[in-house]
Amino acid sequence: MICPTLLTLIAALSLTTATPVKRTDAYLLHAKNSPDNCLGTTGDLYNGISLQNVPCSEAETNPRFKGKWEIVRGNNENGIRLSGTDYCLDATLPLTDTGDITLWTCLPGTAQQTFYYTDDDHIALTDQNSCLDFNAGGCGQFTCAPGRRACGTGPDALAGGQEWTVV
Q1: Rounded (to 5) percent helix, strand, coil in the chain
Q2: Closest Cα to residue 27, out of 18, 15, 40?
């Protein structure tokens, strides 16, 4: 015999419909120090492809441009996804200064793909001290620091290389 409370619960559940998870909107990402260049690629997608700094104008004019990202302020526990694909930002392990950030099949919850978009515009690996870092040739990872210059302290370093804007 089924108890009346269980029958009531079953009846209530049968009237409930699942709400689909809303995907975030897709945005271009550019480093504060380079507003005309966006994070992306114009090549074929595969695991391990390096990301480049592509002129943002190609987002509208080049059909091969892939650089619109699903990102939210705060924790991106399911990864920062390249919109319309199953590829996410991925930090090469072990984490090192000047290490690579590439695209890899999304693996939600993995340390190398769980990023946090901070209030001071850094894209940091959650619970790590490693941030997405822009330099004149491409993107990688480097120790997080407010106003961090990109990829070291030499003449090629660019102020604001770890501060990212979504447009």
Answers
A1: 10, 30, 55
A2: 40
Q: Using CA atoms, how far apart are residues 27 and 144, in angstroms rounded to an integer?
A: 23
* CATH (domain of 48): 2.80.10.50
Q: What order do you get walking across the sheet with 81-82 strand by strand? A: 26-27, 69-70, 81-82, 87-91, 99-105, 139-143, 130-134, 123-125, 115-117, 74-76
Q: Count of domains in the chain?
A: 1
- Determine the structural domain holding residue 50 and report its residue range: 22-166
Q: In this structure, is residue 65 part of a structural domain?
A: yes
* Cα 91 to Cα 1: distance, rounded to the nearest angstrom: 56
pLDDT tens across 113-163, in order? 999 998 888 898 888 888 888 765 566 777 777 654 444 444 444 556 788
| Separation between Cα atoms, residue 53 and residue 39, nearest integer Å | 5
Element (H, E) at 133: strand 130-134
Instruction: Name residues whose C-beta falls within 8 Å of residue 88's C-beta, 6 or more positions apart in sequence.
Output: 79, 80, 81, 82, 103, 104, 105, 106, 107, 113
28 located within any domain: yes
CA-to-CA distance for 94 and 107, rounded, in angstroms?
17
Residue 7 lies inside a defined structural domain of this protein: no
